[in-house]
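Hi F.,

I've been meaning to write this up properly since the lab meeting, where we talked about keeping a consistent format for the predictions we share between groups. The idea is simple: the sequence comes first, exactly as it goes in, then the structure tokens exactly as they come out, then a line or two of notes. No screenshots and no reformatting. I'm using this chain as the first example so we have something concrete to point to.
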Amino acid sequence: MTSRSATIFAASIALTPLLQLSEQEILRIYKSMTMLNLLDQILTDCSRDGRISFYLTVEGEEGAVVGSAAGIEPDDLTFGQYRESCGILLYRGCPVNSLVHQCYGTASDTHSKGRQMPVHYSSTEFSSVSISSTLATQVPQAVGAALSYKRARNGRVSVAYFGEGAASMGDVHAAFNMASVLGCPTIFFCRNNGWAISTPTQEQYKGDGIVIRAPSYDMKAIRVDGNDVFAVLTAMKAARKICINESRPVLIEAMSYRLAHHSSTDESTYYRSPHEIHYWRKHDPITRLHRYMENRGIWDAEKEEEWLKQANQLIEEALVEAESTKSLSPEAMFTDVYEKMPPSIEKQMMETKLHLEKYRDKYPMSNYLPWN
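Output, unedited:
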């Protein structure tokens, strides 16, 4: 389908990148996906137990997340909605204990120094911008980053992730238009997982999904099976090539399904059928990749058992470490924000310090580092 120079490609585009994948790279992708799945399961339980305040999983969408990370370069800047960053960071080499410290908000949280909600990761080392929580605010920001890359001619792209629900936000449309008009090397990656919390797609939009919007903005677009990690990887490589060679944005719509609840505070069986979830579980991206690896002879039950044991041990060690690490001093709420602290903030900091000294027995101060 064509509108001017805007083209929508089918899911199965050139398979050349797949054929070039080494055994080592396939194992890296699989281990990132399974580690992400295990981490989701365990940290969800931690949230249910009250050990962390909140959690969001990516269960059922591991192929879309990790596949997209594998299809771009390590220094391409990613702007996650919230559900994507953990998988991207794992694939790029972020240690498991670093992610766990962020969710626990400890003094060893290198992502946000204990100031963010759980799952709101950020990393300059791994080129991942901080999660904002508010829907779609990251999408125009990604375009701004891509514009700077275009001017610098540094060969980088930005990737803006969002769901089909967030695609209804005005920020997304503004970003599409800005990226197209300015010719920004941005990949817009829409995870169409069927549900925006409790709102199904049939109540979210009319028409043929999100990808059909691309021609209106003179963008090229790709719709891909989000549960096929190799298809996603291939689509990302193709999109990145277009961004760099043609200096224009590309929209990808990854068709997937959210197997888990929206978050640890949600109970999705109130608004969708267990039979629907069961149907999609049979198309789980991890299971599909596992079968491919077994058929190719690079994976078996013994290797699976050994890897899962190793992964569980890494997570368990990270939990023990996080739960024995104190939180930052309350002073950290005020410092490291302004280069020079304004008098109004300095006043609030001193009032807080005096309050905590006066009512020390009312707060669990032993859980925090001492005030400097």
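Notes:
DSSP finds 13 helices and ten strands in the chain.
The beta strands are 2-3, 6-9, 77-79, 128-129, 158-163, 186-192, 195-196, 199-200, 220-225, 250-255.

If this format works for you, I'll send the rest the same way.

G.
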